[in-house]
Design a protein that fits this description.
Layout: E1 6-9, H1 12-15, E2 31-33, H2 34-51, E3 57-60, E4 71-73, H3 74-91, E5 97-99, E6 121-124, H4 125-142, E7 148-153, E8 156-161, H5 162-179, E9 185-188, E10 201-206, H6 208-214, H7 216-226, E11 230-236, H8 258-267, E12 272-278, H9 283-288, E13 293-296, E14 306-312, H10 318-335, E15 339-343, H11 356-364, H12 369-383, H13 391-397, H14 401-428, E16 433-438, H15 447-457, H16 461-464, E17 470-473, H17 485-498, E18 504-510, H18 517-529, E19 534-538, H19 540-543, H20 547-556
Parallel strand pairs: 10-11, 10-19, 11-12, 12-15, 15-16, 16-17, 17-18, 18-19
Antiparallel strand pairs: 1-3, 2-5, 3-4, 6-9, 7-8, 13-14
């Protein structure tokens, strides 16, 4: 009966309800009834047991109708549970209720000692009682969720990370609700913190073929044990084949059980699963529909337009957009992933994307036929047979109005494609996390490098942050001949200046030769010191069972 009154909201949509209840002038002290707190704890504990996750918020028909909000956030629920347990321990009887206190989240969290241990850790209720009392007292004083919780175990001062603390409190109260007794020994539980909280994202790109070859469940378990929180699983790559039993797809990988099995494993194992779609390339689609190939500039002034191999005219060929939307809708409905991750959502280079649809859009936005001819000639001068690879970029840098307009139009075209695909996904799963892997140059503080990226790719970080909850610059420094400071000083700083504050900036890092484990570990520490919201390593297949894996295990334990 109790379960019917409560609904867990795991997604971002529930989190925006925070602040919907305000105590006028802080004069009115609201309370949760005893049964309310126990229902909260029971529901949160069940999420921990079933999914190894902590929910964003809980919604219920509260007994004290009109006195507390219809939705209570996890941070507020955490105080209610801790305070209830403290009063229960002090009086040895059920409290009639506990205060409702709105709490803010800290700017970051700290790692606890127990994340270093692979086996379950325990402590006595007497030891845990000190942590509970400290936690409740801190919130009453500061109205801010602590970043870590101190605990004294057998006379030794230790730390509990906030996920372990909240999960453990919920399970203590669930046991009390079920049995009428508090446990003498406390088992410390772990759970994944909500995406919206300021815990660092520890993500990894994973090819479907890696899971197919190494084993889906075993490989995902190995990645979890390394410390990854988010799996970006490639479900449709440049070949266009998919790794689920689609009723829509034109081509299939050799193993179509990969996504279904990964979805099932991640859902119950405390891993967020983001389905990774390559957007502008699809060999299967262009082979089936040759007319869908993207247009490129002629190599000479009197030549014919080029047509791409597997790069799709995602602007002019509506059937491809509709096909992508259908695939995304199918995945959202059947597998309900946590996130939708876009890759290759751009133009290949400035030489491509010169089809009738782009020209029409340009003219609708104020460019004339003379402007278009000027742009084409400049593009051929830059990327044609005897092109200098620079003239178009130089014109943009110098402020050429026509070139600038063309670059802006291409960015808006890419944004429209992103919006169409994202909207399709959110119609099915409103709380899906939208993210994109972006080329690093448009984020750079170096004006020449930034101009290069904007001209070529049509990826404008400021525009992307309008529609993405997470942006991942692919800052593979060794591929660009850069040292690691380029990642934090040029790309991270530049991107952070461009994107919205509520968009998570997760740095995509090179996890393959010649990068070593020690180098990657140092880069990760530099990123965290810079206050990046997280990192994403490319890729699972090049780090597993290598010296990089051990370096990541050790580094991930150092931050929450």
């Amino acid at each position: 009966m109790k379960k019917g009154l409560i609904l867990i909201a795991v997604g971002l949509s529930a989190f925006v309800l925070t602040g919907c209840f305000v105590i006028a002038n802080n004069k009115l002290q609201e309370t949760f009834a005893s049964d309310d707190v126990l229902m909260l704890a029971e529901t949160i504990a069940e999420q921990v047991d079933m999914y190894q996750r902590l929910p964003e918020a809980c919604e219920k028909v509260w007994q004290a109708k009109g006195k507390v909000p219809n939705s209570i956030n996890l941070n507020d629920a955490s105080y209610a549970m801790a305070k209830y347990t403290v009063e229960l321990l002090n009086s040895n009887k059920r409290p009639s209720g506990v205060p409702y206190i709105q709490t803010a989240l800290p700017s970051n969290f700290e790692a606890g000692d127990f994340e270093l241990e692979s086996t379950s850790s325990t402590c006595t209720m007497s030891d845990f009682r000190t942590a509970l009392s400290w936690f409740a007292s801190e919130i009453e004083k500061n109205k801010i969720l602590p970043s870590v919780v101190p605990i004294n175990i057998n006379g030794s001062q230790r730390k509990i990370s906030i996920d372990v603390f909240i999960a453990t409190v919920s399970k203590i109260l669930k046991e009390f609700s079920d049995t009428g007794k508090l446990p003498n020994d406390v088992i410390l539980s772990k759970a994944l913190l909500p995406f919206s909280w300021p815990a660092k994202i520890k993500a990894v790109w994973v090819w479907g073929s890696t899971l197919a070859n190494l084993g889906v469940e075993n490989t995902l378990q190995q990645l979890k044990e390394i410390g990854f929180t988010d799996i970006l699983l490639l479900v449709k790559g440049t070949s266009g084949t998919v790794n689920w039993p689609s009723q829509i797809a034109l081509g299939f990988s050799s193993d179509t059980t990969v996504l279904p099995r990964a979805s099932k494993f991640c859902r119950t194992s405390g891993l967020r699963l983001h389905v990774w779609f390559v957007c502008n390339q699809d060999q299967t689609f262009t082979s089936t529909y040759p007319e869908s190939k993207m247009y490129g500039i002629p190599k000479t002034v009197d030549g014919d337009p080029q047509r791409a191999g597997k790069t799709v005219d995602f602007v002019g060929f509506d059937e491809y957009r509709e096909y992508m939307e259908s695939l995304i809708r199918e995945v959202m409905e059947d597998y309900k992933p946590d996130g939708l991750h876009f890759d290759y959502i751009r133009y290949p280079t400035g030489a491509w994307g010169w089809g009738p649809a782009e020209i029409q859009t340009a003219m609708e936005n104020g460019l004339t036929e003379l402007d278009i001819q000027y742009l084409k000639n400049l593009a051929i001068q830059t990327w044609g047979t005897n092109g200098d690879n620079q003239s178009f970029i130089n014109a943009y840098i110098s402020g050429d109005a026509t070139v600038t307009k063309w670059v802006e139009i291409r960015s808006k075209i890419v944004q429209k494609f992103l919006q169409d695909l994202s909207s399709c996904a959110k119609q099915v799963k409103s709380d899906v996390i939208i993210s994109a892997a972006l080329m690093p140059e448009p984020a750079s503080l170096d004006s020449t490098e930034k101009a290069f990226g904007l001209v070529h790719y049509g990826q404008n970080y400021a525009i992307f942050s309008d529609d993405c909850e997470m942006i991942v610059p692919m800052a593979y420094h060794r591929d660009y001949g850069k040292d690691s400071s380029w990642i934090t000083e040029e790309i991270f700083t530049g991107a952070r200046q461009q994107i919205q504050a509520n968009t998570k900036l997760v740095l995509g890092l090179q996890g393959y030769s010649p990068v070593t484990g020690d180098e990657l570990a140092q880069i990760i520490n530099d990123c965290i010191d810079k206050n990046a919201e997280g990192i994403c390593v490319f890729r699972a297949g090049t780090i597993l069972n290598t010296e990089i894996e051990e370096a990541l295990r050790n580094t991930f334990k150092e931050f929450k």
